[in-house]
Amino acid sequence: MTHSTPLSPAGDRHFDGLAEKFAGSLYGGPRGALRLALLDELLPAMLDLDGQPMLDVGGGLGQLSAWFAGRGHTVTLLEPAGEMLERARVDLVEWPVTFVEAPLQALPERAPGPWPLIACHAVLEWLSDPRAALATLAGALAPHGQLSLMVFNRDALRMSNVVKGNLQKALDDRLEGTGKRQRLTPISPLCHEQIATWSRDCGLSVRSVAGIRVFHDYLRHPPTSEADWQRLVALERRYCQAEPHWRLGRYLLYTLVRAEGSSEEAPR
Ligand SMILES: C[S@@+](CC[C@H](N)C(=O)[O-])C[C@H]1O[C@@H](n2cnc3c(N)ncnc32)[C@H](O)[C@@H]1O
């Protein structure tokens, strides 16, 4: 059954009605496994982690919150879709996680911080105003606080459309989804230049960047043996931060650091 799922009053795609599909298609298969394997290696390398409190914005089903909680962080998971949050609450019952049902735009009231560490993965591309959202995240960071930001890469979406033969769609640059029905094509896919410019405009510096799935999504023949799967994982690991490959990762993963000083203390 397909049914229309309205956007939020702010024009964002909250994942109410999508939890099951999201769990299956984004985390159920090899794409999700690869993403988690790469994050497992990249996050400790790209972030200074010392068990500081962290905020997971648009935390969805809580996989990332569980990763940080498992490494000694107390976690606050902010998520506007009640259905996603309920599933996360059940799955993360063992961990020190506080759940807040609210959108990113309510961050200043509902989880003001300032935070030494914020993660916002695969959320900005579902918002009607991702630039304003990045400024809100920057405003919630403590001085020298780190933002682990992951966004769906518009340049990779173009590439995969061409590879699949959707040539007119690519020529017309009609890449974004509408956010209607059960589709998981983001409404605001983003490119590196936007993140670099917007970060600078809101006082964040780009400390490091990586591409998540720089090869997998373009394969004509996905691996069928465990040995080939391991070879693919090794290739993804080797080239995820190398020029020019990271630029065509399905997602772009950033560590952004708030540079300017502030008199506010981070919670510890
Ligand atoms: C693709 S999922 C990513 C979930 C999780 N961060 C992850 O990486 O697995 C996008 C999430 O963003 C949430 N979302 C949509 N609009 C939002 C908003 N305005 N503020 C915060 N989260 C939002 C959705 O409800 C959904 O849970």
UniProtKB/TrEMBL annotation:
An example Gene Ontology biological process: methylation
One Pfam family of this chain: Methyltransf_23
Residues annotated as binding S-adenosyl-L-methionine: 35, 58-59, 79, 121
Enzyme Commission identifier(s): 2.1.1.-
Protein name, entry field: tRNA 5-carboxymethoxyuridine methyltransferase
Catalytic activity: 5-carboxymethoxyuridine(34) in tRNA + S-adenosyl-L-methionine = 5-methoxycarbonylmethoxyuridine(34) in tRNA + S-adenosyl-L-homocysteine
GO molecular function, one term: tRNA (5-carboxymethoxyuridine(34)-5-O)-methyltransferase activity
Keywords, in A-Z order: Methyltransferase, S-adenosyl-L-methionine, Transferase, tRNA processing
Gene3D superfamilies referenced in this protein's UniProt entry, alphabetically: Vaccinia Virus protein VP39
Family: Belongs to the class I-like SAM-binding methyltransferase superfamily. CmoM family.
Enzyme class: transferase
Source organism (scientific name): Billgrantia kenyensis
Superkingdom as given in the UniProt entry: Bacteria
PANTHER family: TRANS-ACONITATE 2-METHYLTRANSFERASE-RELATED
Function description: Catalyzes the methylation of 5-carboxymethoxyuridine (cmo5U) to form 5-methoxycarbonylmethoxyuridine (mcmo5U) at position 34 in tRNAs.
Entries under InterPro entries matching the protein: Cmo5U_methylTrfase, SAM-dependent_MTases_sf
